[in-house]
């Protein structure tokens, strides 16, 4: 019996796909954790885990006090 993908992984994978497709470009500001939680109807901890996963994949970068942005791609 297949199990559903964890909500934080679904969010991270959706954002990662937008980054890879170019819909979200390097330097684009991402929504806050609170905004993501509201948009996806999840708890803030779930949205935080999604953002943490994207950071671990080096797809996003955080700037304290400013927000989270799509990371520059290597070689660009």
From TrEMBL:
<dbReference type="InterPro" id="IPR000524">
    <property type="entry name" value="Tscrpt_reg_HTH_GntR"/>
</dbReference>
<feature type="domain" description="HTH gntR-type">
    <location>
        <begin position="5"/>
        <end position="73"/>
    </location>
</feature>
<dbReference type="InterPro" id="IPR036390">
    <property type="entry name" value="WH_DNA-bd_sf"/>
</dbReference>
<keyword id="KW-0804">Transcription</keyword>
<dbReference type="GO" id="GO:0003700">
    <property type="term" value="F:DNA-binding transcription factor activity"/>
</dbReference>
<keyword id="KW-0805">Transcription regulation</keyword>
<dbReference type="Pfam" id="PF00392">
    <property type="entry name" value="GntR"/>
</dbReference>
<protein>
    <submittedName>
        <fullName>Regulatory protein, gntR family</fullName>
    </submittedName>
</protein>
<dbReference type="GO" id="GO:0003677">
    <property type="term" value="F:DNA binding"/>
</dbReference>
<keyword id="KW-0238">DNA-binding</keyword>
<dbReference type="InterPro" id="IPR036388">
    <property type="entry name" value="WH-like_DNA-bd_sf"/>
</dbReference>
């Amino acid at each position: 019996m297949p199990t559903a993908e964890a909500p934080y992984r679904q969010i991270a994978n959706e954002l990662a796909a937008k980054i890879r497709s170019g819909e979200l470009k390097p330097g684009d500001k991402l929504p806050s954790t609170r905004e993501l939680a509201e948009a996806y109807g999840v708890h803030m901890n779930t949205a935080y885990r999604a953002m943490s996963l994207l950071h671990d994949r080096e797809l996003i970068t955080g700037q304290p006090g400013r927000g989270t942005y799509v990371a520059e791609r290597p070689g660009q």
